[in-house]
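Single Protein Entry

Contents — chain, fold
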Amino acid sequence: MRPMALRLGGLADLDPTAVPLPAGTEVTTRVDRVIDGAVRTQGASGRVVSSDDDRVEVVFLDGTRATYLRNEVVPRKLGVARYAQRRAAAWDQLRPCAVIDTVVGSRAWGVAEAGSDEDRRGVFVLPLSWTTGLVDPPLDLTSVDGSHNYWEIGKAIRQALRADPNTLEMLFAGATVIDPMGEELVAIRGAFVSQEIYGSFGRYALSQLDRLEHNQRLAEHRSTIIGWLRDDPALELGTAAERLADEARIAAPTRADAIGRARDYIKQLYRSMYDQGVIAANDWASLRAAASTQLELPRDLRPKNAYNLIRLLDTAIRWLGGAPPDVRVSDELKPTLLAIKRGELPMTEVMSLARELTPRLETAREASPLPRHPDVGAAERVLRAAREEAARRWVTRESGPWGAEAPLPPEAKFDA
């Protein structure tokens, strides 16, 4: 008797040559390919850079890129294939159930330039039949390229109650109501504006600033260490840690502690490079081997994350101060943000600017006229009303994606 996995599925049998491959998916090649004059045999592992209907661009561990037909690569892990199929099926079936649709990102912030992407976020309501079975329904809908993202209405409301920046941006950036079930949520959006913004916008931005500063140090250490390894390919990890402790003047109670912290920096460095697919394994030997090749030295950190955290801090300060909730950047800050976005300001200056905003954030919180917490009662009334309306349309078989034309929910089954 065949053993049966005690895991509920709800998925059809997978065809690994046909499931969607979002950017970042780890894949394995199924054919040999001549790349830059050398044969790359089948079974090579890489990550998807981009894909369309029938072609996939893959980057390998050594940085080499090549384009394959879709049926020439498969997801490296079954779980990835299952996730990709589930995400694609949910998008195809439930996209008509969206009730709010909003253009977000740089176009909503007022800093879009030629070539800026159009990103959208919104809210969808599940048909009743998707909530009554064994299979957990999806709470997110995401397009293959990641530019469109919609949250199930309950998830969206919970995020808004936590003052999640992305959710509040979706509600306040000129939200378009597609179905009346979304009207009340937009109508009460002011109920989500509270002092919780201090933690979700402000402290989140400051935590990202700490991370940027940390990554900046890693980038500087990467340049230093790669240079050392090119001069001395036999350099040992312990010796490199001692040199880095002195070179970077790492502050610590004792020299042994400083060397220990330097060693941790180096380990974080090669772990990060491995995660990016730059080196073959998560260890010092792989970094040392790669340094002798044409390993690209790091450029300055991408400005996108930096200008986003400056924008978030500015938004938090304005909203906490009682200004009407508006996701567009202030006229005073706009030139600075555009300069950051174009890479015209050194990252050190950007991070200094973010640190200068911190006292203003604290002052805004202390004097904020906003309520301490959002209006949970109003939020729950809207959620119940939307779900009851979806149920009514299902029971009465009303025309539309929640009634007579509702998509069939996935069937529960045991995976063999």
About this structure: The longest strand covers residues 45-51. Residues 1-76 form a domain with the SH3 type barrels. fold (CATH 2.30.30.40). The two ends are 12 Å apart (CA to CA). The mean pLDDT is 85.
